[in-house]
Amino acid sequence: MAYEYLAQCYDQFTEDVDYERWADYVERHFARSRLPIHTVLDLACGTGSLTRLLALRGYEMIGADLSQEMLAQAAEKCRGAGPIEPIFLHQAMEELDLYGTIDACVCCLDSINYLTDPAACRETFRRVYRALKPGGVFLFDVNTPEKLREMDGQVFLDEDDDVFCVWRGSYEETERICTYGMDLFQRQGGLWRRSQEEHRQYAYSLDELREFLQEAGFA
User: Fold this and answer.
1) What contacts 178, CB < 8 A, 6 or more positions away?
2) N or C: where does the chain have the smaller number of CB atoms within 10 Å of the terminal CB?
């Protein structure tokens, strides 16, 4: 399963992600909302870096993710964060089921692309729409088809003193799927443990996403 092993070193490999700027960007959109934003869902929250920052800025945060390993990291990272400590739910995006309504939903760092079945993407949008209060905000980003096509044949390396990662990209035009095969080497004492993961992303066009959003009820 994706992130089963990567969760332990995900933050090390994403140190270049400026989560403060992401939080600033999100808040600028919140400020334009006619509905005051207090309760926010971080969908596919990962290790909870953005969840924690928004909690510290005073939002009542809910994090949801499919990976139990990522959620374990998020819960530890967000312990005591904010006036109200974030809560976390183990849920797939297309199975989102909240106990109440929210003012906003954010889904950052191309998580929508991990919905490799367009029907699952449609269902995710419908469930987010149902969870939002009237006038609520849904904010997400995607990798474009152009970017995913460019990943075909690319090889990348990430490393520090204790972790080494090699990942290879391939793109299948007919399926519109970009696959990242990852080999992880993690130091354990004087030895290195090798593990493998496969990540898959679907190349959604902007027209498709706009259609799915409108079908769900968004404007």
Assistant:
1) 113, 143, 148, 149, 151, 152, 169, 170, 171, 172, 200, 201, 202, 203
2) C
Query: Which residue type is seen at 139?
Result: L
CA angle 64, 53, 148 (to 5 degrees): 60
Q: What's the rounded Cα separation, in Å, for the pair 213 and 211?
A: 5
Q: Tokens 């400026």 identify what position?
A: 18
User: CA distances (Å), 62 to each of 35, 46, 81, 200, in order?
Assistant: 18, 12, 12, 25
Residue 139: Cβ-neighbour burial (10 angstroms; 0-12, 13-18, 19+): middle
Q: Tell me: the pLDDT tens digits for 79-93?
A: 999 999 999 999 999
pTM of the model: 0.93
- Which of the 8 DSSP states describes residue 100? S
The angle at the Cα of 62, spanning 84 to 8, to the nearest 5 degrees, equals: 100
For residue 211, the Cα-to-chain-centroid distance in whole angstroms is 21
pLDDT in tens, 59-84: 999 999 999 999 999 999 999 999 99
Residues 6+ apart with CB under 8 A from 97: 91, 127
How many residues are recorded in the chain?
Answer: 219
d(CA 91, CA 101): 16
Q: Which of 123, 139, 143 is nearest to 42 (CA)?
A: 139
Look up residue 84 and give its two tokens: 């109200």
Nearest Cα neighbor of 204 from 137, 124, 138, 127 is 124
